[in-house]
Design brief:
β5, α4 and β6 form a beta-alpha-beta unit. The chain has about 190 residues and is α+β, with helices and mostly antiparallel strands. The chain has one domain: tt1808, chain A, CATH 3.90.1570.10. About 25% of the residues are buried. The radius of gyration is 19 Å and the shape is globular. It has a six-stranded mixed beta sheet with strand order 3-4-5-6-7-8. A two-stranded antiparallel sheet has the order 1-2.
Amino acid sequence: MPITNAAQVQSSPPRFRFTVRQYHRMIESGILHEDDRIELIEGELHAMPPINSAHAGKTKRLNRLLSNLVGDAAIVSVQDPLVLGDRSEPQPDLMLLRPQADFYETANPQPEDVLLLIEVADTSLEYDRGVKIPLYGKNGVPEAWLLDLQRKRLEIHLDPGPVGYRKILLPDAGQLVSPSLLPGVEMSIDSLW
């Protein structure tokens, strides 16, 4: 009889994948709390990294900048949920949403509601670039910006498709940029820093 050790027969344990509805039930029943730093990605619960002062400050700066620029043309949403199909509900740092009379009180926004999505990345750079940005593209979010705090660089992700975004722009310092769905909202790259 051949001898095997436990390491040879061990396989990864099965994973239980949650739906957005099940995730909401866990919140409603008190298993998860609204202030827990958790998001649902492809059916799995992911702990979100802590927010440091650089990330928090940049998010506040962008909130003010975008609020002043868009006026009533969009709703500025800060670290709120975005429903991506049945198995994902991430919490992007900022979104510009299509105006809606109820301000999305009756349902969280979906990709068709998003005019622009922004992730501010410092310690979360690999996760944001490798997991979240492709997820947004696969689910049809029209445009996502990744603000890389480490390199002081903006990545503009456009043309969503089945595996993510098909086009990435890297504007230079001093250049003016605007969301493709809000072309009248122009900002200088320098104003982001």
